[in-house]
Amino acid sequence: MRPVLVRLHRWLGVATALFLFVSGLTGALIAWDHEIDALLNPSFFYARTDGAALSPLELARRVEAADPRVEVTYLPLGVEPGHTAQMMVMPRTNPATNAPFDVAYNQIAVDPATGQVQARRMWGAVSLARIDLMPFLYKLHYTLHLPIVGGLDVGTWLLGIVGIMWFFDSGIALVLSFPSVKAWRKSFAFRVKRGGYALTFDLHRSGGVWIWGLLLVMALTSISMNLSDPVMRPIVSMFSKLSPSFTENADLVRAGPPGQPRATREQILEAAIRDAKRANLTEPMGALYYAPMFQAYGVGFFAPGRDHGDLGLGNAWLYYNGHTGALAGSSIPGRGSAGDIFMQAQFPLHSGRIAGVGGRILVSAVGVAVAVLSATGLMIWLRKRSARRRSATASNARTTREGSVTS
């Protein structure tokens, strides 16, 4: 049985090593994406003007008036003092061509006191320029910047499959790390004084053993992040009833009389104030989001600057039909079935934000460790592969000599 597991571990490890190396290093960095981005691009984060902020809806109106080609799709409803209001935009349809306007940006930083756009960028662009670096790394982490082909997000699916392979390989690795009950202490040791291959081997084996539980969590949450609807939710629903997700509620979200105009932002916010009271949500409204694919709105509840959720299970969201303005779903941390709460915990666990700053530090350390484990695994495989080739060459040479003597 062990030889079979060794072979499985070898090939699963080789198949996933480069992907996990990239994901580990990028994950270690994007745990601090907001902070690093602010250091690199202060004009995108800090407002130039002191003074009282305009209302969020007024800011959106000014942005759209300044460039009628775009529509604001993500609107922060509260801004940290001294900071910009960071909005997402999408191009409107050009009536002359019936195609979207050609707009070279999808994210803007707005001075909340004046409504002036301070900076623009294409979030997720393949670029190492300072303004683009952190969004580039963030998207690289979960899509590798691979294209969408025939409606299939190739990168997201690929890394989701890598996560599945990693999850099963983690179990195999743990079994292989303890070949002998009597010698179990060796599986936790690092032969630092030996150095060389011995230390490389220990970094891979013992390093993985020490943080095995964390690696398993990261593998599992990687599957949830990339393949939530097609893989994780169906599995979890076998053990606990799940409330319909936003995408599963798509028909309800889109439903509306033919030709009915879209609900206005004002109507959605009025409904959200009313529904938040009914749901006993105590956090302020933090953002308004429009999802054109679903023709739906989302309203998030969080304090300014906490859009990712800095502790616990994250932020509450209410979802609305984009035409009727009717409540069409919700995601409220800590509420629902055991399966609902399990799914709510996936991003907070993966990002470390479930445990605040300490959790993010831990996730960064685990990201570096994943890169080290991937690199040392490849080094061990290459060394053994080279040894096997030398052995095969020597064996063939002996056979040839013996054949020559016999003849």
From TrEMBL:
Keywords annotated in UniProt: Membrane, Transmembrane, Transmembrane helix
Keyword Transmembrane helix among record annotations: yes
Instruction: Mark the transmembrane ranges.
Output: 12-32, 157-178, 209-228, 361-382
- Which branch of life, at top level? Bacteria
Record-linked Pfam families: PepSY_TM
Spell out the protein name for this chain: PepSY-associated TM helix domain-containing protein
Q: Which species is listed as the source?
A: Caballeronia ptereochthonis
